[in-house]
Structures are given as structure tokens and as C-alpha cells.
Amino acid sequence: MQYDIEALIHTMAEQLQTRLVAAGISSPALVGIRTGGVWVAERLRAHLGLAEPLGELNIAFYRDDFSRIGIHPTVEPSVLPFDVDGRDLILVDDILYTGRTVRAAMNEIFDYGRPRSIQLVVLFDRSGRELPIEAQVVGAHLSLQPGEHAKLTGPSSLSLEIHRARA
Fold first, then answer.
1. Would you say residue 74 lies in a domain?
2. Residue 44 is part of a domain; what is its CATH number?
3. Residues 76 and 58 sit within 8 Å (Cβ to Cβ)
4. Does some domain include residue 63?
5. pLDDT tens digits, one per residue of 13-67
6. Which residues does 82 contact at the CB level (< 8 Å), separation at least 6?
7. Residue 20 belongs to what domain range?
């Protein structure tokens, strides 16, 4: 599977802009989930012409599998350079799979304040949801075989890698 990721992001920006206008949202704040979500959010921010700095979430401490998978010793803190209370947020991730990463990101956002709204934007949506979470804007849907995993690589040039788990 080959994807023109820059073209997908351009189309996502157009869809997102249409949604924002329809909802009367004129100054949203973008928040990317590290790392791939930040890469996608940076590109969306440029396409949308947003001047406000990008928020970056590191959800490592909010994961529900933290005790099982552990944590990398160089975890960097999240950065939200704007007030969350009453804001319309656009939460951006690279690949939506089980929904657990998005749930953890929303938990962290609510620790900063109570946003007016959150719209989820993902570059790729794949099957396997474990939580009832749905993206409002999706670049492409992935159909992977059992044992296959997708990973976005970047940041200067974004590409999607599909890996098969070893048996």
C-alpha cells in the first residue's frame, strides 16, 4: 500500500476547514499526540494558516497499559501553550486503532481544563476499536491482516510502514 501522505493531509485540511466553518469555529487550537500526531498536526496547521502555537501531548503517563509496558526513561512533558478552558480543540493523531491512545489524550487534556469541544482528526483509521471513539476527519482507512501493524515514519518526509508480527 502506497499513500501520498501530503495529498491526504491537504484533503484532510480542506475537510476540517469545512467542518470548522459549519460549526462556527474561527480560532481552534491544534493538539498533536506525540510523535506522529504532532507531525500531522504541524502540516495541518500550515494548511489552515493557524498562527497559534501547536500543543503537543505525551500521553505515556495516561495510558491504561502503563504498568504492563513500562515507560521510556526520556519521556518529555506535554506542552499546551494556550488555555484549554472554553477552547475548541482539534486533537490530531497519526493512526487510530483501539482508541486507547485517544482516550488517554483526552484524559490529559481535561487535566489542563475543560475545552468547549474536541474534534478528532487522524491520518489513518484502522479496524480493531476497543473503545467507542470515532474520528471526525480521516485521511484514509487501513485494512490490515491479523498480525500486521502500521507505523508512520518521519518527520521530514512522512511515510507509512506496514510490519508483520513475527510468529
1. no
2. 3.40.50.2020
3. yes
4. yes
5. 999 999 999 999 999 999 999 999 999 999 999 999 999 999 999 998 775 654 5
6. 29, 52, 53, 55
7. 5-69+80-164
3-state secondary structure the chain: CCCCHHHHHHHHHHHHHHHHHHHCCCCCEEEEECCHHHHHHHHHHHHHCCCCCCEEECCHHHCCCHHHHCCCCCCCCCECCCCCCCCEEEEEEEEECCCHHHHHHHHHHHHHCCCCEEEEEEEEEECCCCCCCCCCEEEEEECCCCCEEEEEECCCCCEEEEEECCC
Q: Is residue 43 part of a domain?
A: yes
Q: How far is CA 103 from CA 16, 62, 64, 73, 117, in A?
A: 21, 9, 9, 23, 15
Of the chain, the end-to-end C-alpha distance in Å amounts to 22
| Pairing relationship of beta strands 148-153 and 159-164 according to DSSP bridges | antiparallel
CA distance 132 to 129: 7
